[in-house]
């Protein structure tokens, strides 16, 4: 999951280093995630901002030249969301979106809830 190269030791450093429009979009999606993920932790993992839940990487955020990404970290989740989402574009286990159209609170909630259910099922 190594990206363009925005070396950072904290999520804020990463968000400050990326182009401003993309940083604003990632911040909005990150904030929406933090609202729905209980006990969420923010860390840098594989050089990108990652939200952890119950000590497990839940989703990650990154930028590319032409889009922003929400990494689902679960191919089965991506498969289950194909045809369900009305925004963004799935590419493998990544939901790509334009910085000018950040993912809605409803989409972020859907992804987070389904991903947390996977983690909960695995950890018991």
Low-confidence stretches: none
The figure for the number of domains is: 1
Order of helices and strands: HHEEEEHEEH
CATH C-level category: Alpha Beta
The CATH architecture comes to Alpha-Beta Complex
Proportion of β residues?
15-25%
Helix content percent band: 40-55%
Structural class: alpha+beta
Strand order of the largest sheet: 1-2-3-4-6-5
Query: Biggest sheet, open or closed, and with what strands and sense?
Result: 6 strands, antiparallel
Number of H/I helices: 4
Cα-to-Cα separation, first versus last residue: 27 Å
Pfam family, one: DUF1801
Organism: Cellulomonas terrae
Protein name: YdhG-like domain-containing protein
Domain YdhG-like: 24-111
Descriptive account of the structure:
- The protein has 124 residues and is α+β, with helices and mostly antiparallel strands.
- It has one domain: Alpha-Beta Complex (Aspartate Aminotransferase, domain 1), CATH 3.90.1150.
- It contains four helices and six strands, in the order ααββββαββα.
- The chain has helices at residues 11-17, 20-36, 75-81, 105-123; strands at residues 41-45, 48-53, 56-63, 68-71, 89-91, 94-97.
- The protein has a six-stranded antiparallel beta sheet.
- α1 (11-17) packs antiparallel against α2 and α2 crosses α4.
- The protein is globular, with a radius of gyration of 13 Å.
- It starts with 10 loop residues before the first helix and ends with a helix.
- 33% of the residues are buried.
